Amino acid sequence: MKFHQAPTIFVGQVHLKVQNLDRSVAFYQQIIGFKVLEKTEHKAVFTADGKTPLLIVEQPENVKPLNHRDTGLYHFALLLPSRPLLAKALIHLAQSQYPLQGASDHFVSEALYLADPDGNGIEIYADRPADTWEWNNGEVNMATVGLNVQDLLAEDDGTPWQGLPEATVMGHIHLQVSELAKIEEYYVKGLGLDVVTRYGRQALFISDNGYHHHIGLNTWNSLGGKAPAENSVGLSWFTLVFPSEEIRNQKIDQLKAINAPVQEENGKFITNDPSGNTIWLVVNS
Does the keyword Oxidoreductase apply (predicted)? Predict the structure, then answer.
């Protein structure tokens, strides 16, 4: 998974707010297949490999339900290391009888969609080989067509599902935003990422180092929307992982040059995109 390691800039962790921590822990363990790395009264940290945090869920005080018209999370996406393992995940989800929201072929990848009990969107996917992706004038050919479920299921080897594979990574994050012009300036001029696909005036996909997308941005539900309340269910923050402090500092300078906010808090560099999505800028350890 060369697109999720140095020298590429990629999404590392996602932090969500939920209404009921125990319910969320049960879901993310039993349905998604995470291991619990750490748990307190109000927060749980999940991992696939037993050591690397990928997802954090927290139950705020006086938590409010998700408003799908606010900006924030559209979905976070867990990238599995192979197509047979995606088939195994599909079989597990079918046997668990947890409802799927979709199953799609995007040409560059195949994906399953669902939501957690609070409505936070989740994608579980496997990439097709990068040398099969079609590029035209710097844009990758992505679409959404129905997944050939039977063809995918034929990949399964019949062994029992063991939870998320250890090599699972946070493949990308897809955000709801209030508009696209300032958003594009922020992520391209500020963070130095590349536009790889546009869907008219409603969606934008960006990445580093030739990936099909590390971040998706859309206004489908949130055009003109506001950032959610601090105690609302949904996205709290996510991390962008940089290969070195030098490159992170360069991106921070670029953000400041377009008057984007960057704060340092206890050694952490934190920024907000123009739609209020919070990003922690971290360095690959």
Answer: yes
HEC string for the chain: CHHHCCCCCEEEEEEEECCCHHHHHHHHHHHHCCEEEEECCCEEEEECCCCCEEEEEECCCCCECCCCCCCEEEEEEEEECCHHHHHHHHHHHHHHCCCCCEEEECCCEEEEEEECCCCCEEEEEEECCHHHCCEECCEECCCCEECCHHHHHCCCCCCCCCCCCCCCEEEEEEEECCCCHHHHHHHHHHCCCEEEEEECCCEEEEECCCCCCCEEEECCCCCCCCCCCCCECEEEEEEEEECCHHHHHHHHHHHHHCCCCEEEECCEEEEECCCCCEEEEEECC
CATH class entry, domain 2-283: alpha beta
Q: pLDDT tens, 69-83?
A: 999 999 999 999 999
Q: Average pLDDT in the 46-54 region?
A: 97
Domain-wise residue ranges, the chain: 2-283
